[in-house]
Amino acid sequence: MTWTIAPEPVDSPVAAALWRAYYTEVSDRWYLLHEGRRTDPDELEREIAASTGDRLAPPRGRLLVARYDGEPAGSAGVRLVDATTAELKRVFLLPGARGKGGAPLLVGAAEDAARALGAGRMILDTRGDLVEARALYARLGYTETEPYNENPYAEHWFSKSLVGGEAG
To answer: Domain N-acetyltransferase, which positions (predicted)?
Structure first.
């Protein structure tokens, strides 16, 4: 079984299916934790439709799709926030693809895509309940930083240098 990771158009059916799976999981996790329920289906549809992923499209972004043994298994996106800084977005693996070594490969491919866009630093935000993501970023050399945005759901912000192997 092998992993492949390649750019994907943000409006492709594969990208749409992975976005739906990602958003459903992170939204349901938030609502289950804070309100003891899953996401309202109407809200889910509105939010999925409202966030098309255009910010991850070329020329200032990239959406990457990971395939495990040829089947879509996950995604990650990068977008330039300024001339030298990229933001990591939507890192996700389908539940059946987890634990097979794909997450570090996917983040590494996103870092390479950010470098190709001219970025020397990657930033990201995440929630406190996404403990798996926070552990992954720490393992991959990301360090916690001060908030860089006002995302109401973000509770942790990370940064990593993409030049010279330095973190932070």
So the answer is: 17-163
